[in-house]
Amino acid sequence: MSAEPRSRAQRRRDTEHRLTHDVDIWVASASEDGAPYLVPLSFDWDGEALLMATPVDSPTGRNLAASRTVRLGLGHTRDVTMIDGEVEVLHMDALPRERGDLFAEHTGFDPRVPATPYRWFRVFPRRIQAWREVNELPDRELMRDGHWLI
Asked: So where are the chain's domains?
């Protein structure tokens, strides 16, 4: 038997908590010919966008740079947050040093250090959905067109 469904306000609080405290997220992208690609990446949330980094020549790096769109999955299947976002691509030196330092502190990884060339990818959420079980499917949409609904 499943628990009572959370209110949308509670789901938003839970989502913001996970965005602030979680370190890794599933990143789904697609190549120009539509081949899907899924990979976990570390991220840092600044209250407006998720910051991630991946090698320039990786499938994810190429896909995000080409499409400028992404779907992210936060959590596990019985407590998931799905985020559809717009991607901003930044060269390593385009981000203020302090912001890169916050990313490195939160994730335990500094993409400015490896010899492999990395890029920053800022994801601005456009749509966010959150649910645990079937009883939370109604009202699962928390953000639409980049604006919180609650």
From this structure: 8-140
Shortest CA distance to 73 belongs to which of 48, 103, 50?
A: 50
pLDDT in tens, 23-80: 999 999 999 999 999 999 999 999 999 999 999 999 999 999 999 999 999 998 999 9
The CA-CA-CA angle for residues 106, 9, 82, to 5°, reads 55
pTM: 0.94
Name 13's bridge partners: none
- State how far the alpha carbon of 146 is from the alpha carbons of 7, 14, 102, 107, 139, in Å: 20, 18, 24, 25, 17
- pLDDT of 18 > 80? The answer is yes
Q: Does domain 8-140 have CATH number 2.30.110.10?
A: yes
**Coil, strand or helix at 17:** helix
CA distances from 84 to 112, 126, 147, 150 (A): 26, 6, 12, 18
